[in-house]
Amino acid sequence: MRINIETAELQAFIAVARQSSFRAAAEGLFITAPALSRRIENLERALQERLFDRTTRRVSLTPAGELFLVHAQAVMEELELAVKSVEQGMAHRREHVTVACVPSVANNLLPLVLKPYARTHANVRVRIIDESAADVLESVRKGEADFGVNFIGAQEAEIDFEELTRERYLAVMPSHHPLAAQSTLHWKSLAGEKLVSVSSSSGNRSLIDNAFSRVPQRPVIQYETNHVAGAISLVAAGLGVALLPELAIRNAPYKGIVARPVTSPVLSRAMGLITLKGRVLKPAAATLAQALREAMASKPRK
């Protein structure tokens, strides 16, 4: 049996039963008396039963109406409870934010940002995709990440790139290295040095190779790693000099290494917030993105 009864009709029926008056029930529901009458008529037609006895003086329930009132009230109470349960469940459901970023951001900036963020967003689950610049860009492009922090993407048509800071590259070396005595270095002073470099597939590597293309004598790449953390470890072991972005060596857990700016020319990269063009971040993601903006703007300089 198909039940063709609307909740508005049940509300009208219960209101008339309680008020024993069509006019009072209509006023309580903020509808006209004819509209209320139509709802009752539709309900009686669906049930094929008369629910009210009407006289000029009073309105009373028929036996069928008395029986139906018990069930109608139960249905409306259960419906109200169901709606409240869903609303409460949605309010307490854990939110998810996914941020993609290069490892230097994940290691040296995100922890500082996430600590206060967790205090105000304890119910938000944060997933971090800490991968290469190319992978970060792809995560945002595919919609796997709400947003990314990256140094590539500005030239992509479907990506909005918001520059947050410009980050210098520094020469990182053991503290006992002869070049450590200088406050700044020229690119030509690195000629003949054994370099520790990130792999040729890295976005960092392409910037460094381009800078060295202007130097008559290029240094020798003696060691190559996939990640910046590996390069720092080799430098700390005294195996060579590495050219790394300044954020990558902030808070580096190694003793006995120093970093010196390289000039003529200064090499830097634009670090920015990337999102799919036109995408509006949900509130939890927008708050985290703003916290990263503020952290980038106030980051100390080496």
From TrEMBL:
Superkingdom of the source species: Bacteria
Q: Where is the HTH lysR-type domain?
A: 5-62
Q: Name one GO molecular function term.
A: DNA binding
Q: Does the keyword Transcription apply?
A: yes
Q: List UniProt keywords, sorted A-Z.
A: DNA-binding, Transcription, Transcription regulation
A single GO cellular-component term from the record reads: cytosol
Query: Key word Transmembrane present in the record?
Result: no
Q: Which Pfam families match?
A: HTH_1 (PF00126), LysR_substrate (PF03466)
PROSITE patterns in UniProt: HTH_LYSR
Family label: Belongs to the LysR transcriptional regulatory family.
Q: Which PANTHER family match?
A: HTH-TYPE TRANSCRIPTIONAL REGULATOR YBHD, NITROGEN ASSIMILATION TRANSCRIPTIONAL ACTIVATOR-RELATED
Q: What is this protein called?
A: LysR family transcriptional regulator
Q: Which organism is it from?
A: Herbaspirillum aquaticum
